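protien #1 (seq + structre)
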Amino acid sequence: MNIGLDYMRRKMSNRNQLYKDLKPKDRIVKIITAHIVPELGDYGFRFVKSRMQLERNLGDFKQIIWFRTNMKNYRDEVVEFAIHLRVDNNLFPTIRDSYQYISTFSYHNGKQESTFIAESAEYIDEWENHLMNYWYSLHLDDNQQIVDSIIQNIKKATKTYLDANSDFEKSLEYRFNTFKELNYFGLLWIPDILILSNHLGKTEITTDVLQSFESWRKTEDGISSITEGAEIINTIEKIKNMLQHGI
């Protein structure tokens, strides 16, 4: 595919652009407040403009949908944003601390001291974006189609991702079921699964994950990944040793 020709085709054919005369961030805010938030009235989200986030509380958990604006946005020529989902909880980071484990979520607009889980929408199985892999492009694609897609995805992902991770036991089940294959990204799931399963007394999950990890390390892929994933592998080994010594 000729990227340049595809770009021009999309831009020239995109005749349904909302609030085109506004500056990029103002335009995105206007679309969120005038078109997206009203359709989510039953969900109780409020829009915090200073953080470009939809937020709502569920018990001790805060659910967040962050609209990340592209730093390259310019006039009406580039107007893009991406969506990240995050759940905050003030207790779990203190549990992580007891394992000397710090998981960084700065990429998701989160802070280590409160973030429980976070992911960009493109990596959430329940989120469908047929328009683009990561960025939603208002200057290239039909704006109403973008709005409709986001509304439907938020409604679906609120239940299947945000709600599923606003409870320790449900989140452990979600993470364990999502933990599909062992590669560098799969390894990143393991520390929190081990910490959660031990905290909840789910020893069968702890055992299952560690057995999978040990078996993978002996494979050709596991051996070749030792250098690339050295830090996360060392972290898993450290937590495993702490569990074996009865933390």
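ok now protien #2
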Amino acid sequence: MSNNDFKQDDQLTNILMKITKDYNTDKLQNNDLQIISSYADILRAEPGYLLPLHHIKAVKAITMILAYNLEFKGNAGLNTEFFKCDLSAIEQIIASNKDLKITFVQHNISLSMVLYTEQDKIYYLYERENTFTRIEQEKFDELKGTFEGIGGLKEPLNNYLLRKIGEPINTQTITITYSDHFNFPIGADKPEAVLLYPAINTETGALYQHKLTLVMVFEDAISSVTEFHDTFQICPPHGC
């Protein structure tokens, strides 16, 4: 077993201890455990990788997702299980092999996201599972401003990051590169859906430690093949 495997085992042990402690002190209820169980059901199987150089193991994926869920479960606006999109919808947005940009926004009272490419600047607001609404620049700026403004959902995310590592500004935009994540081999069976789970990596020394990120899961309803990714560019510190 490698050192990385030991680190992942330690992370998972710490998460399980936190779950047990929070359940015993009534911070977690039975319905919370059902949500946690659903994560395990989705992430249980080790995948047959389509893009073997850009993936993370299931144990790391579930650890990062649970870390986010346990930290922010008390905030109704941030208590988002996942965003689900048909791969075909993603491919329409990133036509001609462009990188996908995701900017976090606040839609009504909940965390949401706007998807677009740097080249096109055509904005698609995630409304609910597999449902996007095209919006104009003015609406995009409004939703982004609500998220980042006083009393917005970014405030508790910033406070968490400041408390953990002394940095005052949490993630604004994530870039998922086409070449590393959507450039499937010619003739390969593609996954049907993309699930994006809010997550945080609490591992000491991790890139983007404690910053809001997304674990991307490729899901195939027929073969149940899944793939887990967290190799994105996060702004800040990268240019937005």
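The CA atoms of residues 85 and 131 lie 8 Å apart.
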